[in-house]
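Re: beginner question about structure tokens

> Can someone show what the tokenized structure looks like for a real chain? I only ever see the sequence side.

Sure, here's an example I had lying around. Input first:
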Amino acid sequence: MSINATKLARQTIRELLELGICDFVISPGSRNAPLTIAVHEAAQAGLADLHTRLDERGAAFYALGVAKATKQYAVVICTSGTAVANYHPAALEAYHSDINLLFLTADRPAHLRNTGANQTTLQDGILTPLETFDSASPLDLSDILTGGPVHINLQFDEPLLSDDSSDWLAGFSLAPVDEELSEKQSLDVRAAGVLVVGHDRAGFSAAQIEEFADILDWPVISEDPLSFSSTHAHASLFLADEEIRRALRADEIIVIGRTTLSRSINAFISDADRLIVIDPRTEYVDTDRSADLVLTHIPHITKHASPDEWNTVWDKASSSAEALFTKSMPWSEQAALRMITANLPDGSALFIGSSRPIRDIEACATPRTGLAVFANRGLAGIDGNISTAFGMATRFERSYAIVGDLTFLHDLSALVNHINENLTIFIIDNNGGGIFSTLPQAGVAGFEDIFGTPHNLDIAQVISGFGVDVQRVKSESDLQQIIAAQAEGLHCVVVEVPSREENAAQLKSLYQRVASAVRIGINLA
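And the corresponding structure tokens:
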């Protein structure tokens, strides 16, 4: 049985607030008016943080960024119809990354479905594979919001607005937090092993993994070298060489999370005698992960002593590669990314866009710590990256993002409703889809039209049209000056780099030079 729209909205928002949820991202609409008015009243009472985004697709990714940064549920609210469908890309990303995101959608009453009623479609299940709770009456949200993304579809009947001016927030109190304690499993590991950490760390904190790595005392490979200073630099480059891969072959490998970036790392993993995966998502998302042992929590370790030469040979491999990088490098995408990531101030946040930048940082950046690093690795799409960075930036004093030009243009509409937080976005501009020039389809007939897709735009001029501050750079010294200046508010930096073809050739040469240096370093030459 349905209840008054205002009462249903108020009861839902109040219960969310009592569960400690305070971030609400809304987009304007009519059917969701009872919800957005209730959120506004809660914000006026100092109980909620209200974020308004004009576009539902961008709003969902913005909420994703907030949820990533806080590790708490963020709520994104929209009206009925196509507005809900625009949530689907972010819903998929949240599902595969296991992000706490609540999609709260307004709907017409069920009796209007399949009748041709205006702005009415089948919203129950529209965000598959998320579970939908479809209701015209209040739900027990404490039973629903137990972790991971959820879709709640509320049916609001007319009248949508009410003249009820009662203080519905009176007597507000937070529900007690139920701390779930997990019993640690024990694990007996062998001597010559390697720890591989996926970019999203399977939801574990960098500190948790550092503690585990210290006890393990194995070589560490991290897809995110900016969160682990002890990681072995440039492994994705030197492990692309088959001879080096054989020389560094591990008896046992532990993978935390998923490795989504480098074929060389995955080839290295597949060569091990024994593979152990640690990832909570294997219980409900990646249920078919193949490994000799799959764990959902970081275990207690019983370890046999590693041979002295095991860590030594890995140290020589990564130091030989790093020595090559410390020599002068020509201006390139990789040189720009090394400069940016090495000079960002401690305590700041960094969002890394999908496609080439995240791979180049894994391969070329010097390992460090001091940054909160984020990326959309659930499905690794380029959609919504700017909006996600906007949401992330709301929780940090200073934030940065690095994206490719197509990734930036794909979410250009985010600038219509841009933020005031201190966020500097570096846009690597090579006039098109640079990653395709490094893949097997490079050079096929029609490559530029179907893969390269040059935009031929003056991106700085486009950004200026939105009233956003923008600069262009063409050298490492320019980048250093911009980072040191620490611009206030939203600031875009167009990093102009050599052509996609030149970059592909430089990358090929880099792989060869790194392999040669590492072979010499570990006495394979």
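Each token stands for a local structural state, so reading them left to right follows the chain. The radius of gyration is 25 Å.
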